[in-house]
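Posted in: Protein Modeling Q&A

I'm a second-year student putting together a small comparison for a lab meeting, and my supervisor asked me to include a predicted structure for Trehalose-6-phosphate synthase. I've never done this before, so apologies if this is the wrong subforum. The sequence is pasted below exactly as I got it from our records. If anyone can share the C-alpha cell output, I'd also love a short note on what stands out.
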Amino acid sequence: MGRMIAISNRTASDPKARAGGLAVAVWEALKSSGGMWVGWSGKLVNETPRGVEVFRDDGVEFVLTDLTHNEYEQYYLQYANRVLWPIFHYRVDLASFDHKAFAGYAQVNQRIAQIVGDRAEPGDAVWVHDYHYLLMADCLRKVGWKGPIGFFLHIPFPAPEVFRAIPEHEWITRAMCAYDVIGFQSEQDRQNFIRHLIEDNGGEDLGDGRIRAFDRTVKVAAYPIGIDAEGFEAAGDTEEASIAAEKIGRFLGNRSLVIGVDRMDYSKGLPERFEAVGQLFDDHPELHGKVSVTQIAPPSRSKVEEYRELREQLDQLAGRINGDYGDLDWIPLRYLARSYTREELAGLFRVARVGLVTPLRDGMNLVCKEFVMAQTEEDPGVLILSEFAGAAEQLQSALIVNPYDRERVAETIYTALTMPVEERRERWQQLRQTVMEYDIGWWRNSYLHDLEAV
Ligand code: ADQ
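Accepted answer (user: helix_wrangler)
Welcome! Here is the predicted structure, written out as C-alpha cells:
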C-alpha cells in the first residue's frame, strides 16, 4: 500500500500532543508509510484561507488549515459539539438543532476534502477520525478520489431511535455509506449502526461484516481502542509519578483514596458520581475521616453553554457534600479542575484504592485502562466501571455499575473499599491481561488490516 493519509479535527502537529495513545497510534501508522496528517491548525481567521500550512516532521507531512470564525462557530461549536456530541451520547435534551450549522459543517468537510483530493495519489489510503468528519468520504468522492477510505468513530453510535432525532440524519447516513470501512468502539455501536442501515434505510446484511446500502458496500466492524499499556505501566515507575504519589500521600495520611479522572463533560456522569459519594458518606458514617475522594476534571469546551452550566453544578455539589460531611481535619470530596501529566496520573492511580469511572455514555473510555495498568500486583486497586462505557464490553472483571443508580454506586464503592486483597488481585490480573492484549498497537493493526483489504 502507498501512503496513509489521516484526517482529524486536530492533529498532533505539536510534538507535545503526541503523548496520548491515539496520537501515537496514528503517528506510528503515518511514519511507517511516510504519510500525511490533515486537519485544523487551531487558528482562527476572518476570511477563508486560500492556502494551507505544510511542514514535515520525522517523515510525516502535516497539512493544516485555519478556520474562519464563522466556520468555527457553525462546524465546530454548533454542529459537532451541540448536535452530534449530545445526540451520539443520548442527550437529545441538550442538542440544539440549526440548519445553518449543518451547512457550515458540510462546507468544512468539503473544504478539507478538497485539500486532501489535491494531494492524494493512487495507492494512498485515507483514514478519517471521529464525528467532526462524518461526511468526509462522500466529499472525497465528489472531488474524484477513488481509493480506499476508512472511518473510525471514537464516540458511541446511538440507538437508531435517538439518531433519527437529527434532522439531517438521512443525509449523514447516505454520506457515511461512501466509506469502505466504518469502525466503531463497541459491538453495541456496531449493532446500532447496522440496525439503522437495515431498519431505517433498507440496507442488506451481506453476512460477512459487510452491509449493502445506498448502492454501496461498506464493511462495519468494532475495533475497541486500547492504550499504550506497557508505556503507561512504565509511566507509573517514573520519578514524576513518585513525586505526585508522595504529594497526595501527604494530604491523605492513612486515608484510602478513591479517584476519578475525566474531562469535564456532561457525558462523564460527574454530578451523579458526586451524589453517589454523598450517599456513601450518608450510609456509612464509619467511613468519615477514613476515605478521601479526589476528582480531577479539567474544564473543556468552555465556549459551549452546557459545559459552563456543568461547571457550576459541580462547584455547588462539591461544596454541599463537603459542607454536610466534612470536618476540621477532613475534606471528603476534593475536586481539582485542572489537568496532570500522564506520569502524574499514573502515580496517583497507583496510590488509589478505588478508580471511579462512571460515565453515562462513553465511546470507550481510556482512563479505566490506564487505571488498570498503573496498579501493582502487591496491592491492586479496584476499578468501578459504568456499564455504559464501551470498555465495559471488555472489562467484565471490574465492578460494573449503572451510573444512574446512586445507592448502588455508593454500595459498590463500599464493596471496593472493603474487598480482600485476593479478590482484588484476581480481578486485576484478568483486567490487566485484556488491557495488555488489546492495546493501541492491536487496535491500529486490526483496523489497518481491514482497510488494506479493501
Ligand atoms: P475522551 O472523551 O477525551 O475521548 P477518554 O477515553 O477517557 O475520554 O480519554 C481521555 C484521555 O485524556 C485519557 O488518556 C486521560 O488520561 C486523559 N485525561 C483525562 N482527564 C485528564 C486530566 N485531568 N489530566 C490529564 N489527562 C487527562 C474520546 C471518547 C472516548 C474514547 C477516546 C479514544 O469520548 O470514549 O475512549 O476518545 O477513542
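A couple of things worth pointing out for your meeting: The chain has two domains: 4-226+440-453, 230-437. Residues 31 and 58 are 7 Å apart (CA to CA).
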